[in-house]
């Protein structure tokens, strides 16, 4: 079993094969391929590798010359190349899904020559359709400096020096550590071309050493892959305007904007959920009748434990013990409970009834986000904001599955069938025990009645006994009432013990110790009891819910001292993460910044800890920017600049002014709250990471919100302060264009806001792109300044983005210039020029108008202000 990551880490080996090599090499035609339908008889295999249109070998068998392939059948096994004859493809090309990554292999050897001290190794993508998304290159040799030449100016940038080893070791041994002695490793990402330069130091005569390290420079790759897309149009929306050349021609297919360089995004096609095949040819996507699930174990006495991890059916460790290849696992170490899908993905727990598998990524692959098994349908869903993968047992609807009795998975009599969906559509079905039952729905009699079902029956019998007692006599009534009192007391004792158990499990003693040892923390942080928060929220009344997010649910509450708070119930936290959670609470409670939501404390008496924040009354920036215009309120350009500057200042404080750096990891307009004075408050640290002040980045599982997610972090898993800068750049674009981060165009297609902004910025003047209100209130210089700042924040290479300090300084400088120009206009009363900086709509004026008009149509903002009074 093998997992293909949908993002990064592939094997890239640079092997040079001349384009005019000898006979036996099948060479593609350089003519233009058919735009939609390849002719019959086109090759679809090279040795043991398969591919499909838009790729092809032979005249008109490919969509465009970029997709022409070459098969070298003089080698065993045969080798498949892109049209440059250099970039070797080392795995099947799957065109049915959104995984538009190709595993490739390149290598290059440079022999040393007498009198020559400088050598070059260039590489360029085989066409506009391709981008080198990620590569780790190992450079072996001896005694030279490595430079990378700037793509435009050819100016050299020194990367490192490769020194000679003390002993004469082989290249293979040098590559094992690749630490600068005999070998050095470099990383590249999101490039269409690069050029390396090697400058030798002075050395003796060649040929005096036995190892080739002294005789040549070799560039090979540990990991890399290229990304492809259809680039005759920049986006799906523009491609659909020209139906004659539109690539997604199959029914039941969908178009998605691609990720490319800033000059070329392109698009890709994918079969819809539940369909397989080729979306690039007519009728290429067909319904997938997945019959690969076998509900009967073929072997008795299957091993079902790997250390302390249970492996229930349909999963299994041995042949004949799993229901399909997709569910085969490997117990590599029973002592450490190491349960693997393969080398990259480790299983830590299987939630059989919930349809979840907890996944831990090995250190080299922590950026990976998808689970895929060769020759099996894609039945695992990993969202990118969670380390748990949802799964289905077969790519069938429940109705289709139940028609095939011999292959139906839900064999327990107390189980039911459920559909599994992802953001891309329907995935398949899974099974679940009926309400009141628990266990394994995939085995006969696997779902058993819950113990509290019996307790419920006892309670009913108790009530019946009370009725009989009342009719039988006053004495029996007293006895029954006494029994009830004792039962209530017993239940309260059980609850107290359970809360105490959770308090200890959630490291309450550790937090108390942290608080008592820190004078500042003890003044600011409180450990609330569950009873405190139940009273504050009226037992977590659903009407108190302020919102639901990717990290939990937020309630509005009023504490006993009349403080209004927001109480967050987070989703499940792994037991191993509790100590980190407590440390974050202790540190965040000490953060004191006027533009960061204040953390008052937490409650540890529940299974998942509760966080208590200051309540912010006027909602989020997202709600105000994107709410219906019928609300009668909009932010003025002055408000937008101030809120942006305040949020930028808060993020700069988190990055560099606090005692420990905090990378927010989920910056978005819905996490910028506004108080009653419309002052910005950055909120929601559920995804944040604490980083030592001397550390530049951390490697994490990718979390965030699509539309705001930094592409470099998404592809490398390396979180740094510039990841927040990218997300903040999207917020700036929201303020300029007043569009959501993923918005629907007039054609009905979905569009990524940052892609749209960067593309339109190259095509037409900025004043034609921004919202009408912005054009009316802001000067052209101000619009250009904010647009330029947003463009810098959105650069794909994080090193080219500004820091949050620089962003804040630019915004504050812009506000100062605007304020000075306002004073000039005000002072020049004789000219009677319009006051440039007055609000287009004052929030006070808007409330006055709303309250003075129809009493049944108050704005949502005045309702927010009045709700606080009603609560008190």
From TrEMBL:
Signal peptide range in chain numbering: 1-22
Amino-acid positions noted as binding ATP in the UniProt annotation, renumbered to this chain: 568
Residue ranges constituting the Protein kinase domain according to the UniProt record: 540-814
Cell compartments where the protein resides: Membrane
Listed Gene3D superfamilies: Phosphorylase Kinase, domain 1 (3.30.200.20), Transferase(Phosphotransferase) domain 1 (1.10.510.10)
Record keywords: ATP-binding, Disulfide bond, Glycoprotein, Kinase, Membrane, Nucleotide-binding, Serine/threonine-protein kinase, Signal, Transferase, Transmembrane, Transmembrane helix
Zinc listed as a keyword: no
Membrane association type: Single-pass type I membrane protein
One cellular component term from this protein's GO annotations in UniProt: plasma membrane
BP GO terms, sorted: cell surface receptor signaling pathway
Annotated TM spans: 462-488
One example GO MF annotation: ATP binding
Protein origin, superkingdom: Eukaryota
Protein name: Protein kinase domain-containing protein
Organism: Miscanthus lutarioriparius
Lineage: Eukaryota, Viridiplantae, Streptophyta, Embryophyta, Tracheophyta
């Amino acid at each position: 079993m093998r997992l293909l990551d949908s993002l990064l880490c592939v094997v890239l080996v640079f092997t040079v094969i001349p384009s005019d090599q000898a006979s036996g090499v099948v060479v593609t035609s350089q003519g233009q391929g058919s735009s939609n339908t390849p002719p019959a008889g086109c090759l679809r295999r090279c040795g043991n590798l398969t591919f499909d249109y838009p790729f092809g070998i032979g005249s008109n068998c490919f969509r465009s010359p970029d997709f022409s392939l070459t098969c070298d059948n003089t080698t065993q096994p045969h080798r498949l190349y892109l049209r440059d004859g250099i970039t070797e493809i080392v795995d099947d090309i799957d065109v049915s899904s959104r995984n538009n990554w190709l595993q490739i292999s390149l290598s290059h050897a440079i022999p040393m020559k007498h009198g020559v001290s400088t050598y070059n190794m260039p590489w360029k993508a085989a066409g506009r359709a391709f981008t080198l998304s990620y590569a780790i290159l190992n450079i072996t040799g001896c005694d030279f400096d490595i430079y990378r030449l700037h793509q435009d100016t050819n100016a050299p940038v020194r990367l490192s020096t490769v020194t000679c080893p003390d002993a004469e070791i082989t290249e293979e041994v040098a590559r094992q550590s690749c630490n600068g002695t005999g070998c050095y490793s470099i990383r590249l990402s999101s490039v269409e071309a690069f050029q390396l330069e090697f400058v030798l130091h002075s050395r003796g005569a060649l040929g005096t050493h036995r190892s080739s390290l002294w005789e040549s420079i070799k560039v090979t790759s540990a990991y890399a892959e290229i990304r492809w897309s259809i680039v005759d149009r920049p986006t799906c929306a523009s491609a659909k305007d020209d139906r004659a050349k539109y690539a997604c021609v199959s029914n039941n297919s969908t178009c998605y904007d691609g990720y490319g360089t800033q000059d070329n995004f392109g698009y890709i096609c994918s079969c819809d959920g539940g369909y397989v095949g080729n979306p690039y040819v007519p009728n290429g996507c067909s319904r997938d009748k997945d019959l690969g699930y076998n509900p009967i174990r073929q072997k008795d006495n299957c091993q079902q434990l790997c250390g302390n991890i249970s492996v229930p059916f349909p999963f299994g460790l041995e042949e004949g013990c799993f229901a399909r290849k997709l569910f085969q696992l490997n117990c590599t170490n029973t002592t450490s409970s190491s349960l693997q899908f393969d080398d990259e993905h480790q299983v830590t727990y299987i939630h059989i009834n919930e349809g979840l598998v907890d996944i831990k990524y090995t250190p080299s692959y922590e950026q990976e986000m998808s689970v895929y098994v060769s020759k099996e349908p894609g039945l695992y869903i990993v969202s990118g904001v969670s380390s748990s993968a949802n799964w289905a047992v077969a790519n069938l609807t429940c109705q289709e599955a139940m028609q095939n009795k011999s292959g139906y998975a839900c064999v327990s009599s107390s189980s039911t069938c459920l559909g599994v969906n992802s953001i891309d559509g329907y995935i398949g079905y899974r099974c679940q025990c009926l309400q009141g039952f628990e266990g394994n729905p995939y085995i006969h009699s696997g779902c058993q009645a819950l113990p509290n079902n019996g307790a419920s029956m006892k309670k009913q019998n108790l009530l019946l006994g009370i009725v009989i007692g009342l009719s039988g006599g006053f004495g029996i009534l007293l006895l029954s009432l006494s029994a009830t009192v004792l039962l209530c007391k017993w239940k309260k004792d059980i609850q107290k013990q359970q809360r105490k158990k959770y308090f200890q499990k959630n490291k309450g003693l550790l937090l108390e110790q942290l608080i008592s040892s820190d004078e500042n923390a003890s003044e600011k942080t409180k450990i609330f009891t569950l009873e405190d928060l139940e009273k504050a929220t009226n037992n977590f009344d659903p009407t108190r819910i302020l919102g639901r997010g990717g990290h939990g649910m937020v309630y509005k509450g009023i504490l006993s001292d009349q403080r209004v708070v927001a109480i967050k119930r987070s989703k499940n936290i792994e037991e191993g993460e509790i100590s980190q959670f407590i440390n974050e609470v202790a540190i965040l409670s000490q953060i004191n910044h006027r533009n960061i939501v204040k953390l008052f404390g937490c409650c540890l008496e529940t299974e998942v800890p509760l966080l208590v924040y200051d309540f912010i009354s006027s909602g989020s920036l997202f709600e105000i920017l994107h709410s219906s215009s019928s609300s009668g309120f909009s932010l003025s350009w002055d408000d937008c600049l101030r809120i942006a500057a305040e949020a930028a200042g808060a993020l700069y404080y988190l990055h560099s002014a606090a005692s420990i750096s905090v990378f927010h990891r989920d910056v978005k307009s819905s996490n910028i709250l506004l108080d009653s004075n419309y002052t910005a408050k950055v909120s929601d640290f559920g995804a944040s990471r604490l980083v030592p002040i001397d550390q530049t980045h951390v490697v994490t599982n990718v979390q965030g919100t699509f539309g705001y997610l930094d592409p470099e972090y998404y592809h490398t898993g390396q979180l740094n302060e510039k990841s927040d800068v990218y997300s903040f750049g999207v917020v700036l674009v929201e303020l300029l264009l007043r569009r959501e981060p993923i918005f629907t165009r007039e054609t009905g297609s979905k569009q990524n806001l940052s892609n749209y902004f960067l593309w339109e910025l190259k095509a037409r003047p900025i004043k034609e792109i921004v919202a009408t209100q912005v054009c009316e209130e802001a000067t052209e210089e101000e619009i250009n300044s904010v647009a330029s700042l947003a463009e810098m924040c959105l650069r794909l290479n994080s090193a080219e983005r500004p820091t949050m300090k620089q962003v804040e300084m630019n915004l504050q400088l812009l506000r100062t210039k605007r304020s000075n120009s306002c004073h000039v206009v005000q002072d020049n009363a004789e000219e009677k020029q319009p006051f440039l900086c007055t609000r287009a709509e004052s929030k006070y004026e808007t409330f006055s108008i709303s309250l003075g008009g129809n009493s049944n149509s108050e704005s949502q903002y005045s309702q927010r202000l009045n709700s606080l009074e009603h609560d008190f």
